[in-house]
Structure formats: structure tokens, C-alpha cells
């Protein structure tokens, strides 16, 4: 029949869930195979709302948990092993400053759209003005001040 410890170990080994420890000693459980939905859903939503100057939806729970992790760097690496490469491409770094999340536990939005319009030398003044007009029009549609 086996010991209870053996049975628990088998259940843990066969589980589709993984976990990491939080600062308070509890655990955050997640299904690794389902994280892509949270990542890419948030990424595409943030890119759209950033382009339109609209408020973003709330960040996925996994990032809130990483902010509260006992070891944020280990948790981030467990959840997204290649997160350090995201610093230079157009992945999730376009939405969240992952370095700040790991270093300080703060979830700081990173708006790649705004960054490009403000810093890319190939963007003309006419492009910037057109974008500002788009932002103003979208804000007017929403009834806010942008």
C-alpha cells in the first residue's frame, strides 16, 4: 500500500502544477503549460491600449506573485527561463519592466510604443504629431483627458 509520504510525493511529481514560495511562507501554484495565455494575452492587450493611450488591464496574477516571491529572481527564472533575453526584443519587456520586478518587487509598466515615438530617430516630427493627435482623439472618445 505504501506510506503516505510516498503517495504525496507521487501526487506532487505527477501534478500539472508548479509552485514557488512567497515571502509569507505560502506558495503560488501555477500550470506552466497555461502561462503563455496570460503572457501573450496581456502583451497584446497592453500593446493595443498603449498605442491608443488607454488604461491597461490588470497584470496577470503570476507577476503579482513574483513581486511577492521569497526569491524573485528564482521565481521569474522558473516561470520564464529566458526572461533576461526579453530585455532587447519585442516580447513581454514591452509591457513590464522585468528587471525592476525582480530587483524591487515593483510592477512598473514599460510602454514600448511611447518609447519608440519619443526616442527612435527614424520617427519624424510629423509622425509624433500624428500620434499625439490619435491619442487626443482616443481620449476624447473615452471622455478622459488622455
C-alpha geometry: elongated
- Strand order across the biggest sheet? 1-2
Oligomer description = single chain
Rg, nearest Å: 20 Å
Question: Termini distance?
Answer: 65 Å
Mean pLDDT rating: 85
**Major sheet details:** 2 strands, antiparallel
Give your account of this protein's structure.
The protein is mainly alpha-helical and 146 residues long. It is 53% helix and 5% strand. The chain has 7 helices and 2 strands. A two-stranded antiparallel ribbon has the order 1-2. A hairpin with a 5-residue loop joins strand 1 (18-21) and strand 2 (27-30). It is elongated, with a radius of gyration of 20 Å.
In short:
This protein is mainly alpha-helical and 146 residues long. The protein is 53% helix and 5% strand. The chain has a domain at 16-112.
Sequence-ordered SSE layout with sheet pairings:
Blueprint: H1 4-14, E1 18-21, E2 27-30, H2 35-52, H3 61-67, H4 72-79, H5 98-104, H6 112-119, H7 125-142
Antiparallel strand pairs: 1-2
Helix pairs in contact: 3-4
Descriptive key words:
2 strands, mainly alpha, 7 helices, 146 residues, elongated, single chain
